[in-house]
Amino acid sequence: MERWQEVAARQWGAVGRDQLRAAGLSEDAVWRLIKDQRLVEILPRVYRVAGAAQHWHQSLMAACLWGGDTAVASHRSAAALWCLDGFGSEKAGLIEITAPKQKHFPGRFRLHRAEVTPAFATKKLGIPVTNAFRTVLDLVKVLDEHRANQLLDEALRKGLVSMEALWRFVRRESGPGRRGVGKLRRLLEQRDPAYQPSASEFQAAVRALLVGAGLAFVEEHVVTDSEGRFVARVDFLLDDAPVVIEADGRATHSSRLDWEHDLERRNGITAQGLAVIHVTRNRLRNHPDELVAEIFETRQRQLRRRGVAGPWPASRAARVRGRPPSGGPGCPCPS
Prior knowledge:
- By secondary structure, this protein is α+β, with helices and mostly antiparallel strands.
- It has three domains: 3-123, no CATH class; 132-189, no CATH class; 201-321, Endonuclease, Chain A, CATH 3.40.960.10.
- It has helices at residues 3-9, 17-22, 27-35, 56-67, 75-81, 132-142, 145-157, 163-173, 181-189, 201-212, 256-260, 262-270, 281-286, 288-309, 314-321; strands spanning 14-16, 39-43, 46-49, 72-73, 96-99, 110-113, 121-124, 127-130, 217-224, 230-238, 243-247, 275-279.
- Strand 2 (39-43) and strand 3 form a beta hairpin.
């Protein structure tokens, strides 16, 4: 394998013209590769190796190569790379980068014209990307407050950020012209310093109850509508029936907006044909047998209703979008 091919192999089959020259190819050699169709131009001065699989990672890498040395995947593309729920996957994710490049934008992806300092950049799966803190800040700028709350909880839940580190980040970045910092500060102020998102000890106790009852389920499932738009993240979805189990403990929901949007959120979930069972601390502690019985009864009722329409199709989708309860592959993004 030639040197330029090794470079492309590390970049999902994409390679920039400057990289080809740096690998020792002359301009004539590059043109011969293009003429012989060993290289296919996919963006100005960016190429795909002929025969290389075409997919989201390659397109994102190509956009970063087009953007120059300091270009990074950002915003929703960065969220997908960090496996944050509700931001698509490698199959359907938006191509979104941040780069200082000003001219000749090809218009095939979303470009944010700005400089990302090295302190806020890293690599994920070989693709340059904003780090978790900058990704959260970028998304907070463009999301409504309710969705931004969900994003922040997800980043905390996955351990990508912490409350203490986010506060240090906000204090360091505060100042004139720092878009999004004020909104992120407000979100942090809604949470106690020791705030933990919903994946708590209480949710773990509900999970243990479901496992003990022999129920198959997916944890941290993202519900989407028929067009793939985000509806809600739910605690548990039964694997073989359209039944959602929500661990409802006020101690695990310090954010005001989580409670203000409860009714709207539930309406969105039920509109997708899902039955919802709410588990409180009192029911879990004092009436676990009644709770399990209700879950099984609701499961059977939902399956009977599905009898005319056919089998419940959630199993495959759930595994793509959620996290298996044990021994599973975890986040669907490759790592």
